[in-house]
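Hi F.,

I've been meaning to write this up properly since the lab meeting, where we talked about keeping a consistent format for the predictions we share between groups. The idea is simple: the sequence comes first, exactly as it goes in, then the C-alpha cells exactly as they come out, then a line or two of notes. No screenshots and no reformatting. I'm using this chain as the first example so we have something concrete to point to.
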Amino acid sequence: MLPRYPLALLPTPLVEAPRLAAALGGPRLLVKRDDLTGFAMGGNKVRGLEYYLADALACRADVIVTGAGPQSNHVRATAAAARVAGLAMVAVIHNARPPQALGNLLLDELLGVDLRFTGLPNREEVDVQIEATAAELATAGRRPYVIPRGGASALGALGYLGAVGELEAQLEALGAHPTWLVLATGSCGTQAGLLAGAKLRAAPYRICGITVSRPVAECQARITRLAQEAARLAGGSLAVDPQDVLVRGGFIGAGYGAPSAEGVAAIRLAARTEGLFLDPTYSGKALAGLIGEVQAGRITPDDTVVFLHTGGEPSLFAHPEIAGQD
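Output, unedited:
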C-alpha cells in the first residue's frame, strides 16, 4: 500500500442505532461513525487525504489546489490538512461569494484559504479553473499539487479500500453479518474505494450508494473506473460487473448542496431518535435514500444494514431552517 500522512483517529466506531431502526420499521441498523475520523471535522474526506498529503510532500509541493462548492467538506478538510503539513491552500469555488461566511465557508476563512469564486453555477467550471490556477502558480515559481474536485481519484479511494478491513474486524467482534452498506455518493471516490475493498476481500454485503449530485449512470461509470484503478494502486486487479455498482437516484432534490424535504425529514429523525447529526448535502440525503429502500421493500426487517456516516455537520450551521418547529 502507498504511504500515508497520518491524520485520522482509527478505527472509527461502529454502533447500533436501535431507535432509528425501530422508527424505520425495518432492519437492524449499524452506523459506521466516519464523522468521527478525528481531524478537523473532516469525516470521510480524512482517509483519502492521508494519501494525498503523503504524495504532495513526496512531490515537494508547497501549495495544494483543489475546489468544490461553498459548503464543501472536502475543501475545509483539505485546507486543515494542508496547514498541518505546512502547505498553502488555494480553493476554486463555484458560484459567487455568499454575502455571509457560514458553516464550512467560515472555517475555510478561519484556515486562511485563498478562495477563488468562479461566479458561475456550473460545477464543471471548477475543474477547468483548478488546472488554470495550478498553471498560474507554477508560472509564478510555486510548486502546486492538484487534488480533483471533491477529492475523488484512485489515490483518494485507497482510504476506503483500506477501511473495508477495519469494518470487517468490527463486524466480526459484534457478530454482525450485514447484507447492505448504504452511503451518500457524490464525487464517487468513497463508494469506489468501498467497492474495491469489498470485492478484494469478498465481503458478503451489497453496497448501495445514494447519489446526491450526479446522474446514476455517470456515478456508475465513475465508480467502476475508480474502483479498478484503486485496486491496481493497491497491487491487485479487479473485474467489476455492472450489477456490482448499485446507485439509487431520486434524492438529490433541487440540486447538489440544496436541502431536500426528504433529507431534512431524515436529519430530524436521526437527531430525535439517536442524537445523531447528519448534514443536508450528503448524509441526510443518504438516510432519506435508505428510508426509501425500506419503504420500497428492497431492504427488509430481516436485513442488517451498515449506514456510513460520512460527516459534514458544519454545513448544518449554514441552514438554520432545518431545525424546524414542533
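Notes:
The radius of gyration is 19 Å.
Strands lie at 14-16, 28-33, 63-68, 88-93, 114-117, 144-146, 180-185, 206-211, 246-248, 304-309.

If this format works for you, I'll send the rest the same way.

G.
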